[in-house]
Write a structure and sequence with these properties.
Alpha-Beta Plaits, Ribosomal Protein S5, domain 2, five-stranded antiparallel beta sheet, 2 domains, 10 strands, alpha+beta, elongated
Length: 211
């Protein structure tokens, strides 16, 4: 999975529905273990709440892994609606916890489903949905004429990013490229750099302007 949609940053929202307080927390996670850690963290933060219901979905070991919990609410009224929001927006690598402080008014099955899904959706919207892509980071060294040529060529390439550059006797620069474009971009570098070295895998996002 070289590209996927997730949220931009952790967010918390609070909604009052029929005298119950619903608190939605959302966070980007990379593994099922980090999702469970986030769920535990929020559950501890709101340890006195009536319910801490949750859902997550991650891409791990070349497959999608998901889970959800009603945490004591009637079956199918909390965890599954939260997960439904993840599916609605086509998200991956995300965990959502919706906390409820019961206010004395029973919401019924339909009311609970609507309350949990709307709280989860508000948290996602507040965070903002973005596209992530897997990247590779390299460092390279070339002379000044070669660097000018590289700049000219890569200016036309989508998602090529120079992270750092140092001008001395020659030009040393670090750049980041999307995994899906790696072979095509590295082909351009042939006979244009004196040295090139792979550093690490990375990840970048593109803002979708979804509010």
């Amino acid at each position: 999975m070289t590209r996927y949609k997730s949220i931009k940053e952790p967010k918390e929202v609070k909604l009052n529905i029929e005298r119950s307080e619903f608190i939605g927390n959302v966070q980007k996670v990379d593994t099922s273990e980090s999702a469970q850690e986030f769920i535990k963290e929020i559950s501890q933060k709101y340890i006195n709440a009536t319910h801490n219901c949750w859902a997550y979905k991650v891409y791990e070991n070349e497959r999608e892994i998901f889970n959800y919990s009603d945490n004591g609410e009637p079956s199918g009224t909390a965890g599954k609606p939260i997960f439904g929001v993840i599916e609605k927006y086509g998200l991956n690598n995300i965990a959502i916890v919706v906390t409820r402080y019961f206010g004395g008014v029973k919401l019924g099955i339909r009311g609970l489903i609507d309350a949990y899904s709307s709280t989860a959706e508000e948290a996602v919207k507040k965070s903002k949905v973005v596209n992530y892509h897997k990247t590779s980071i390299y460092e390279a060294e070339c002379d000044y004429s070669q660097f000018s040529e590289i700049e000219r060529l890569t200016r036309k390439i989508y998602d090529f990013k120079i992270i750092d550059q140092n001008f001395g006797a020659s030009v040393h620069f670090t750049f980041e490229i999307p995994e899906e474009n790696r072979a095509r971009i590295l082909k351009i570098f042939e006979n244009k750099v004196n040295k090139i070295k792979f550093l690490m895998r990375g990840e970048s996002f593109i803002d979708n302007n979804l509010d």
